[in-house]
Amino acid sequence: MSIRIFITGGTFDKEYNEITGQLFFKDTHMSELLKLGRSRIPVEIRTLMMIDSLEMTDADRNLIAENCLKAAENKIIITHGTDTMAETAKVLASKAMKKTIVLTGAMIPYKFGSSDGLFNMGSALAFVQSLPHGVFVAMNGRYFNWDNVRKNRQTGAFEELR
Amino acid sequence: MSIRIFITGGTFDKEYNEITGQLFFKDTHMSELLKLGRSRIPVEIRTLMMIDSLEMTDADRNLIAENCLKAAENKIIITHGTDTMAETAKVLASKAMKKTIVLTGAMIPYKFGSSDGLFNMGSALAFVQSLPHGVFVAMNGRYFNWDNVRKNRQTGAFEELR
Amino acid sequence: MSIRIFITGGTFDKEYNEITGQLFFKDTHMSELLKLGRSRIPVEIRTLMMIDSLEMTDADRNLIAENCLKAAENKIIITHGTDTMAETAKVLASKAMKKTIVLTGAMIPYKFGSSDGLFNMGSALAFVQSLPHGVFVAMNGRYFNWDNVRKNRQTGAFEELR
Amino acid sequence: MSIRIFITGGTFDKEYNEITGQLFFKDTHMSELLKLGRSRIPVEIRTLMMIDSLEMTDADRNLIAENCLKAAENKIIITHGTDTMAETAKVLASKAMKKTIVLTGAMIPYKFGSSDGLFNMGSALAFVQSLPHGVFVAMNGRYFNWDNVRKNRQTGAFEELR
Fold first, then answer.
1. Model ipTM value
2. Any idea of the CA torsion for C107, C109, C113, C115, to the nearest 10 degrees?
3. Domains of chain D, start order
4. Closest CA to B106 of B114, B97, B115
5. Which of B155, C112, D71, D128 fits as disulfide partner to D102, beta carbons 3.0 to 4.6 Å?
6. What pLDDT, in 10s, does the model give residues D123-135?
């Protein structure tokens, strides 16, 4: 069965607007990324929103949860801004779905040469296939249970709480 | 505990010699790749050989197997040319180690902008952490058991035998 | 004799801060760029300021002009934000130096894969060697006299006034 | 008037065949390169051949010369393998055309991230607009007269004969 990929925005999909000099969202680069990775895993990609995760509201998180619940697939990847990834993971875990849900993202936009996005998606796709049901964050080559992860704002790295 | 990474060469680490116009091996790009991926997983990297996998001999495969046996780690990634990855996997499986061993590689050298190497290593690191003991090939976002994989020479994709 | 390169900032040298998600200035990438271009032209690089050209003051422009006047070299390249490049060119032209001065920049930061910076610097280095004394803007593969150039804010392209 | 660009192959346009692991020629990347450089110079691109310059024959060089003679444009850029660039320049100079002809190329294929091709084309476009009639080689940020240039096979750099 396919893996479902939900896009919510975050650094991962930010682009540079060369007219205004600002970072902004246009379309997701997920298909391009999977093509670059020569991925042969069947996936269904759907964009739910295109926002900075600092601007994500409770309503947004509920929308993501509903989409996970309704999805035919039981393996789901969610691209997400790194700042509140742990918060969304908590909301998803509260729904106690019999699914493997992996949240991932990037510290550097995919379109900038030096992005970690390709590496993180490689990890997320592997974890979603091999981890049991539950909600996980996959960043920095590691995976974290939803209730044992935070982003260290000083270093930018994800780490365990205990 | 750390993950052991053994380097054996293959397309993954090939470089372009701008004086001769030939592809060649110099050093592995593994540390550079893991830095780009912002990987925070402790790893031990050791280069065993730097060869094209079409030139890999039985002696080379035994050397790889011995190093896997001797390694203190029970999670091992091996970068390898794609052409004979399945053959080396078979030799490793014959040793029946209580370890998780994942072979991976690239269709395009890491140093060429369009490489799948970063994606594959993201996958391999995730699979080696989450799969049970056994020998696996991780390519194209998928994993394959050592006894059920071949490279399709026409398409370049890895696929199951049955 | 060497070519003098003055750095003033602009999009060319902007970087992405992965902790804050903001664009910022750190160091110039000029040496790295010239190495990538395998440039064999002797150059002297000096950073005068690291600012967005929309924030450039009269005092800043006078500082640039003074440095051009004092420079031992009579071939000078200035990297500059694109928004007020034409304005700085006018100040430099008012000094009537017996030098060839070429202003250039980038629409996309050099550190983002899709930058025009390498192309523009290739052009600027060529123009400064082959154009007569005067003040010029080199962008989009073209050169413009200081008194016949503006940036089209809608398209991002440089064009002649008449 | 437009600038004419003739494509003849060389390292500039080589690609990596991920099935065979060999370098090969497919199409020229010139349009893609000029788009990346945001070039606004009108150009006419025509592919004359796609070969390694070590395999270029007298007949090939005559074909290039004939195309330069017949071209409506008097500003011509020729992309060319670096090994025999000086030889082709000599053949073109023997035709004594009232045109500015600039040969350029790359030490690293354009499709490999670390290519000097974008830099060299930026230079070549600038030199062809600003140099007098004659035949020149533009490499390494410099230009050379056809009768005073050779490629140093040890360093890969172009240098003057005297």
1. 0.97
2. 30
3. 3-159 (3.40.50.1170)
4. B115
5. D128
6. 999 999 999 999 9
